Amino acid sequence: TCGFAAIVGRPNVGKSTLMNRILGQKVSITSRRPQTTRHQVMGIKTEGQAQCIYVDTPGMHIMSRDRNKAINRFMNQAAGRALRDVDCVVFIIDRTRWSDEDQAVLERLENVTAPVILAVNKVDRLQDKGELLPWLESVGARRDFAAIVPISAKHGTNVEALEGEVMSRL
Ligand code: GDP
Ligand code: MG
């Protein structure tokens, strides 16, 4: 098998960190500063016979009222194109937070026919792990996700499980 997986989410949720973790190298710039990556970054992961091309896709979070600014329009269109031909989408959010930008990303995924996997990142920073289960249920109700996987991209927790979910959908 061989296929494409897009990694989407608002700035700062950990898209680049996840890319680097999956690919085992620093291919994608990570920063505390939002929007460090304006271009798509791709990397190939080979696992036995299976190959997956991961695409770090910035610019999905731009809300409709801001879409007219030239740079925003450019990023938004690039993000839209990237989603047309993927086999699988990994939608990342930051633990138990939900913002307007997360909502904007989710709305951009409405017409995506590829399976969407929800990755709940930064669970290492959750004070109360008991929050997670009810949260997964509430956010899981926002869309019919192919799978929901809590991860820590920074520490690598559960990232292999996430990769398994992606690989099984190529
Ligand atoms: P992006 O804008 O979505 O590409 O986000 P980045 O990958 O650049 O990460 C934004 C910030 O969140 C950086 O400071 C990362 O080190 C941090 N970060 C990413 N993943 C995790 C995680 O699993 N746990 C913690 N504690 N921090 C993370
Ligand atoms: Mg990034």
Please render the helix and strand layout as text.
Elements: E1 2-8, H1 15-23, E2 41-47, E3 50-56, H2 70-84, E4 88-94, H3 100-108, E5 116-121, H4 132-140, E6 147-150, H5 159-167
Parallel strand pairs: 1-3, 1-4, 4-5, 5-6
Antiparallel strand pairs: 2-3
The structure holds guanosine-5'-diphosphate (GDP) and magnesium ion (MG).
Give a quick set of tags describing it.
alpha/beta, Rossmann fold, binds magnesium ion, 5 helices, globular, 22% strand, binds guanosine-5'-diphosphate, six-stranded mixed sheet, RNA-binding, 170 residues, cytoplasm, 30% helix
Brief digest:
Residues 1-170 form the Era-type G domain. With 170 residues, the chain is an alpha/beta fold.
Task: Specify the overall morphology.
Answer: globular
The N- to C-terminal Cα distance equals: 7 Å
Tell me roughly what share of residues is in helical segments: 25-40%
CATH topology: Rossmann fold
How many H/I helices? 5
Share in β-strands: 15-25%
CATH architecture: 3-Layer(aba) Sandwich
- The CATH superfamily label reads P-loop containing nucleotide triphosphate hydrolases
Instruction: Report mean pLDDT, rounded to a whole number.
Output: 86
| Ligand kinds | guanosine-5'-diphosphate, magnesium ion
Oligomer: single chain
Number of structural domains: 1
CATH class: Alpha Beta
Task: Report the radius of gyration as a whole number of Å.
Answer: 15 Å
Counting helices, strands and paired strands, the structural category is: alpha/beta
Total number of strands: 6
Reading the helices and strands in chain order gives EHEEHEHEHEH
Order the strands across the largest sheet as they lie in space. Answer: 2-3-1-4-5-6
Low-pLDDT segments: none
Region (G2): 35-39
Family: Belongs to the TRAFAC class TrmE-Era-EngA-EngB-Septin-like GTPase superfamily. Era GTPase family.
Domain Era-type G: 1-170
Protein name: GTPase Era
